[in-house]
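By convention, the token line describes the chain's fold. To illustrate:
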Amino acid sequence: MRRALEVAQATPPGDIPVGAVVFAQDGRELGWGVNRREANGDPTAHAEVEAIRAAATALGTWRLDGCELVVTLEPCTMCAGAIVGARVESVVFGAYEPRTGAVGSIVDALRDVRQLHQVQVRSGVLEEECAQLLGDFFERLR
């Protein structure tokens, strides 16, 4: 999670600071991403999607079997779909997102038994630090 927090610092100005990193089973970093919705004018440019794309490119396949995604904020429904679709094995997230979180807050898309693929989840890792990063961002907007 410390690496995801570090990555979040690279978020372009104006975008919500979220960092995501995909690791291989052996611990190698395969890809990372930050939110770039405002910077790119792209509603799909979430940190998780960016990290998944980078990891798939690094591996040369869309299947991220055995990989772990570490992200500073609970993934939304779109990102949860990308995680399931990429067959990511596990997700670790920091801060909960009570308005849009799809890994337990609103729905639990990753562990729904009706899904083709279920994902292992660890939540609340360095939650205070992750929440503080977001809180500082929104405080500056006010």
